[in-house]
Design goal:
Blueprint: E1 5-7, H1 13-16, H2 19-25, E2 30-33, H3 35-45, E3 54-56, E4 63-65, E5 68-75, E6 82-88, E7 92-97, H4 114-122, E8 126-132, H5 149-157, E9 162-165, H6 171-183, E10 187-191, H7 193-204, E11 229-233, H8 243-248, E12 262-265, H9 274-287, E13 290-292, H10 307-317, E14 321-325, H11 329-342, E15 347-348, E16 355-360, E17 363-368, E18 376-378, E19 382-384, H12 386-398, E20 400-405, E21 412-417, H13 427-441, H14 447-466, E22 471-476
Parallel strand pairs: 1-2, 2-3, 7-8, 8-14, 9-11, 9-12, 10-11, 12-13, 14-15, 20-22
Antiparallel strand pairs: 4-5, 5-6, 6-7, 16-17, 18-19, 20-21
Length: 477
């Protein structure tokens, strides 16, 4: 069988987070990655003691695979060192860019390399484009990172203590903040492990020079109320362990927010996180802090193309075939409608999960792959079966009652978890019910029968008080 080869386009977590699982499943697999992603991958493999060679590539490389040559393409995105690929041959070429923004005026990197794509696809008889669908519902054009500089400068030049939360991987935005802070003689302090990890990777990749843009260690700050400090922090999505939530809720040591501070969300909510983020907004409103979001000022730019950007790419490269990628099914269908409506000569194909496509006799044909449901991984890389995830949800929703019985001594221990405190006063009544059910009514029955009767009795009792039945676990020794 042929050796498996994995190409990494960039270092975002949804692209590198499962690499160690793939390495364990396919130890002979070869991995190619750009420099910044390679550093981030190595950081993930080191704690797991996985020593895997990663081949580096740049936009200048050409990699030969049978009749195809793989050409990495420099593209812009919300993390440095992002690439697309053209799999090129004289007969057929495929353009694949999973994440990109069509930025022709980025802050610190080269523009999106449309010219290279055009030249390569023009030398093939037929071509296929596979493009990002994340922002297909948005008309217009995605902002450039450089478009944010004027409003970021207004924020940073203010004589206020400033907290800025953003996606930690958006290193070029961090670099803009560092540059503007230096210009206005402000000190930058980071809070949160994620932002420091990405900064360290940026230093190693020489994307940011540590000496040119020094970052002050939080522990060395003498006056935490200093208005010359710009705190760059994690938690822009309202994460429970993020620094933003800790600071806003008053749990961060030495930092208390007040009405003279400004708190900046240099990001937008990822769908599904809105409730957590608005909870933080409300808490900030109660403190009187000057809250600034991307609705107030131009301080966030997406990393994905809007409709006008997709027009700019498709009208220039003119592929014969098109497959939308990187989006939910609804987005993929909308992307196909968009292409059909604007480019009726391009043949479109919707690929679902576990489907592949092959080029044969000048046509693309779909085929099914062997379906295997993905694993859910938590903690130390142990898969959790879906039925166990269902159990977790039930515990979270309904709470739990734990009952331990000693058949010989007739001792009874009852623990309530995740139930209203008021239920604690009913523990004596529960104990009486268990005593009667286990040691009187079913005294001579076998253990399994007794345990089930106790479980039913307690669930029924709790339901009468709560209106729902908690998970009830009974052990008898």
């Amino acid at each position: 069988s042929k050796k498996l080869t994995l190409f990494i386009t960039h270092g975002h977590e949804d692209h590198i987070g499962a690499i160690h699982h793939l390495i364990l499943a396919f130890p002979e697999m070869e991995i190619f990655a750009p420099r910044f992603a390679e550093i981030l991958i190595k950081n993930k493999l080191a704690p797991r003691k996985i020593n895997k060679k990663i081949h580096l590539y740049t936009h200048k490389d050409k990699l030969k695979f049978d009749e195809y040559t793989l050409h990495p393409i420099h593209v812009t995105h919300s993390i440095p060192d992002t690439h697309g690929f053209v799999f090129h041959s004289s007969e057929f070429s495929t353009l694949f860019i999973s994440d990109f923004k069509f930025d022709l005026n980025p802050s610190f990197e080269n523009p999106f390399d449309l010219l290279k794509i055009k030249k390569l696809l023009a030398t093939s008889k037929k071509s296929l484009a596979m493009l990002d669908s994340t922002n297909i519902l948005s008309a217009g054009k995605t902002l450039s990172e450089s478009d944010l500089i004027p409003d970021l400068e207004k924020i940073i030049s203010n004589e206020k203590r400033t907290f800025i939360t953003l996606f930690s991987s958006n290193i070029y935005r961090v670099k803009n903040i560092l540059e503007l802070s230096k210009k206005h003689k402000k000190k930058v302090v980071t809070i949160g492990r994620s932002i420091q990890n990405y900064l360290n990777a940026a230093y190693a990749a020489k994307i940011i020079d540590e000496n040119t843009y020094p970052v002050v260690d939080l522990d060395s700050v003498q006056n935490h109320a200093d208005t010359k400090i710009i705190y760059v922090i994690t938690g822009s999505q309202g994460e429970h362990l993020g620094a933003a939530r800790r600071i806003i809720s008053g749990e961060q040591k030495n930092i208390q927010l007040n009405s003279s501070d400004q708190f900046v969300f240099c990001s937008k909510p990822i769908p599904g996180n809105e409730a957590k983020i608005y909870r933080l907004y409300n808490m900030l409103a109660q403190t009187g802090v000057d809250l600034i979001t991307s609705k107030d000022m131009q301080i966030h730019a997406s990393g994905h193309p809007c409709q006008q950007d997709l027009h700019s790419v498709l009208s220039e490269i003119k592929p014969n075939f098109f497959i939308p990628i990187h989006g939910e099914t609804y987005f993929l269908r909308k992307h196909i409608q968009f292409v059909k409506g604007n480019y009726p000569n391009i043949e479109t194909i919707l690929l679902q999960n576990f489907q592949g496509v092959e080029y044969k006799n000048s046509k693309l044909k779909e085929f099914s792959l062997q379906e295997k449901l993905p694993s859910i991984i938590h903690g130390k890389d142990l898969p959790i079966e879906r039925e166990r995830i269902s159990e977790r949800r039930k515990l979270a929703i309904s709470g739990a009652v734990f009952i331990s019985l000693n058949h010989k001594s007739q001792n009874i221990k009852i623990d309530l978890k995740g139930l209203p405190i008021e239920m604690d006063q009913h523990i004596p009544k529960m104990r009486d019910l268990v005593d009667y059910c286990a040691f009187s009514e079913n005294k001579k029955r076998d253990h399994d029968y007794t345990i089930e009767q106790v479980r039913i009795k307690i669930r029924t009792f709790c339901n009468s008080l709560l209106g729902y039945k908690p998970i009830t676990l009974v052990q008898m020794v």
